[in-house]
Design brief:
This protein is of the alpha+beta class. The protein has two domains: 375 residues, DD-peptidase/beta-lactamase superfamily (Beta-lactamase, 3-Layer(aba) Sandwich), CATH 3.40.710.10; 26 residues. The chain is 39% helix and 15% strand. It has 14 helices and 15 strands. α2 runs antiparallel to α12, α3 runs parallel beside α8 and α3 packs across α9.
Length: 446
């Protein structure tokens, strides 16, 4: 191979240029200042709102423990609240970890120890369902029957109102769980349980409502009261809560997208235990997660608990080389957190009328919250895909500013190796072609 190495001045200049580009990339240590960030977003987000028919978008960006927020669109402000949907799971996981620190919950104890009735997989009745399994989506649970209908309280218009029995819709949180978990319960369905507990990862929409109940029962107060006292107040989260009626004058109006148009929905309460939050309030919580559980003078969680949450209990091996760019690429799931490639962590949420992205990178000390008030869960298909892609476009803009080299992290080692082999093959072919061309010249050396 040494005989075909080109040591020409031109090739040396190309190598030097490539090295300069990589060194420049390595010199990127963080995002621009917030003024530059605002200028960039002021240019890009209004266009996304217009093209994507987003009524509004609220954004909060964090660097270290400094927070910047802005709202775009109509009938919104940085004080308006949006439902954060499944992103609430991160807050619930933090509450569980606080109770673990206080000795009130054991992650590896049977969750039935903290409830007034036993909890078991009907196919594996002798295998305990632990708190850790529920946090990690490894309990073998899929979704209780009518979970969506019960949570949304059937407040939607008749043409897409969930059809659930009235007696289920009227159940309290405890009543609903008992009816869903007890083999004699009116809402029990063995098909809600699938894999053997602890064996596999399976995302569950019912695991965290169960954990919310555990938080309330173990703490001796309602879930909402515990969250206000132990998560919100210490972080000075003053504009978020759990009752939509508290925010009647500043609640973002939810919309669902149907046939390419946004249709207004009523604001729903979510059984009084679903979060209505501002992006800035959520960023305060994010700052604590990103800094070993500490925000300002408040130690919300011990560093060991943050490490436990971020440690992957499941590893994902999804290839991304041949996949179009959309969301960040997940690398695994911990306790209440997804772990993405490139050191990013967080969650995403979708609910009727709302979407939310909550992402942070502890090593880079940056993060962001994006909230919008349109979704298409009720119609699905192209409507749902378009609403998601619009949100990811905003995320792509933020990632390009906060983590310019993230594209390199999208690839797995196997994909990087594949690209390396292809690149080496191309170089060899070119060099052989150059060598043969030179050999054909008068006086050329083969």
């Amino acid at each position: 191979m040494c005989g075909i190495i080109d040591h020409s001045p031109r090739l040396r200049r190309i190598r030097a240029g490539i090295l300069l580009v990589f060194c420049a990339g390595c010199a990127v240590t963080g995002p621009p200042d917030f003024a530059s960030l605002a200028a960039e977003l002021d240019t890009t987000i209004p266009g996304v709102i217009g093209r994507g028919k987003f009524p509004s978008i609220q954004v909060a960006v964090i660097r270290g423990q400094d927070i910047w927020s802005r709202a775009y669109g109509t009938n919104t402000s940085t004080a308006h609240v949006y439902m954060n949907a499944s992103v609430q799971k991160v807050f619930t996981a933090a509450a569980v970890m606080q109770l673990v620190e206080r000795g009130l919950i054991d992650l590896d104890a049977d969750v039935g120890d903290y409830m007034p009735f036993p909890v078991s997989h009907p196919g594996y009745p002798d295998t305990p369902i632990t708190v850790r399994m529920l946090l990690a989506h490894r309990a073998g649970l899929d979704a209780f029957r009518y979970q969506f209908e019960w949570d949304t309280e059937s407040v939607f218009a008749p043409e897409y109102r969930p059809a659930a029995p009235a007696d289920v819709q009227a159940l309290s949180q405890e009543g609903y769980l008992m009816a869903s978990l007890s083999p004699r319960g009116s809402n029990f369905d063995p098909r809600a349980w699938i894999h053997e507990p602890g064996r596999e990862y399976h995302y569950s929409v019912s695991a965290y409502p169960l954990l919310r109940y555990v938080v309330g029962r173990v703490s001796g107060q309602s879930y909402a009261a515990y969250m206000r006292e132990n998560i919100f107040l210490p972080l000075d989260v003053t504009r978020s809560g759990f009752s939509a009626t508290e925010f009647a004058s500043r609640h973002a109006t939810p919309y669902t997208r149907m046939d390419g148009e946004n249709i207004e929905l009523p604001v729903w309460d979510g059984q009084g235990s679903m979060m209505h939050a501002t992006a800035e309030d959520m960023a305060r919580f994010m700052a604590a997660l990103m800094n070993g559980g500490r925000y300002g003078d408040i130690q919300l969680l011990q560093p060991e608990s943050i490490v436990e949450m971020q440690r992957r209990t499941t590893r994902f091996t999804r290839l991304s080389f041949f996949k179009g760019k959309d969301d960040l690429v997940p690398a695994g799931h911990g306790l209440g957190l997804f772990v993405f490639r490139g050191g990013w962590m967080g969650y995403g949420g979708s609910a009727p009328g709302f979407q939310c992205l909550f992402r942070y990178n502890p090593s880079k000390q940056v993060g962001y919250v994006i909230m919008s008030n349109v979704n298409a869960i009720l119609s699905g298909g192209e409507n749902y895909a378009s609403a998601r892609s619009d949100l990811f476009e905003v995320q792509d803009g933020l990632i390009s500013i906060l983590d310019p080299l993230y594209g390199l992290h999208r690839l797995m080692l196997i994909e990087v190796g594949f690209l390396g082999v292809v690149g080496a093959y191309i170089i060899i072919v070119i060099r052989l072609w150059v060598r043969r061309r030179n050999a054909k010249r008068p006086g050329g050396v083969a």
